[in-house]
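Hi R.,

As promised, here are both runs. First protein below:
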Amino acid sequence: MSIHLYCRTMNIRKFLWMFVFVLALVALSACGAYDAGDSVMADVPAEEEGEAVLILQPDAVFTVDDVEAAGWKNSRELSPETLPGATSVWYGFYRQRDVEVRVYESQASAISDGQEIADVATGRRKPTPFASGGISSTRTSYSAYGIVGNLILLCEIKIEDCQGLLESIE
């Protein structure tokens, strides 16, 4: 009787391991199923380090409510006065990471008015007074950003931390 129980327990364990393996395989294949047909990677000059900026949905116009609907938790509104072209700036969280949302009239405005400032804010580019050398006292709170429609989203540590948010905005 104990041998029968032992064999049955081993079959259940084999089944559970096989189920976990198949589930992991499905999850990994789903992660690779992203359709990049509506995304663009912006060029970054060779002297700058880091990856290209993720740019999604070039013709779309979103509001901060759309970002909230995608899972971002709004904390407070910030002043846009130091960000040329920005209509509003919001601070909040996504998956326990700081995310700043900068709203522009269009994606063209976000790129022309906001991309260089986002590069400086994330440490991808030196502030203008320090571009040719010197010491910068600028401390960056964000390490990456992406552009979705008319929005620039600054992510606390790495783009992967808020990539789900970037891809979920509708």
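And here is the second one, sequence first, then its structure tokens:
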Amino acid sequence: MKKTRLTLIGATQRKVTKTNLATSGYRRALIAQLTETLINENKNPHEFEFDDQDVESNAVVDAGANTELMALLQKISSEIKQQSTKIEKQSTTVEQSTKIEQQSTEIKQTREKIDAKIEQQKADIDDKIIQQLRELRKQFDVKAEQQSAVVNTKIEDVRSKFDQKVIELDQKLRSG
């Protein structure tokens, strides 16, 4: 069994050397590198056979290494999924934050436009009110002058009648 493991390690190192990967280190690290390389080459690491392996070493690889590889691959896959989910959530959060900032800016700009329109409308209304007040004042002054003329005419008429009555009374008193 020990000879088979050494053969397996040697075969693994030779395969790793062919792929320009490190050949020294722990067996698990070498197997992980080889597995990653096989996956990148679109090969199934469970079906990979070393050039100089016999049936017995295949059984050892299948029974021991493949189990370890599968566990490691599952663990790595799980960690990748977790990190991917975390990144997606952060990305979504960043996107939402960016949208909120954009909407906030748009709201602020819209508010500024509305405030400017309100100020302009206030100024326009104030101008119209002032113009209408001037027109009303002119109309009032004209009407007041007209009324004053009418009143003055009536006063003159009454004064004239009064003066006439006073003269008539004065003549009656002197004649009589």
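A quick note on the second one: The CA atoms of residues 80 and 86 lie 10 Å apart. Let me know what you think.

Best,
J.
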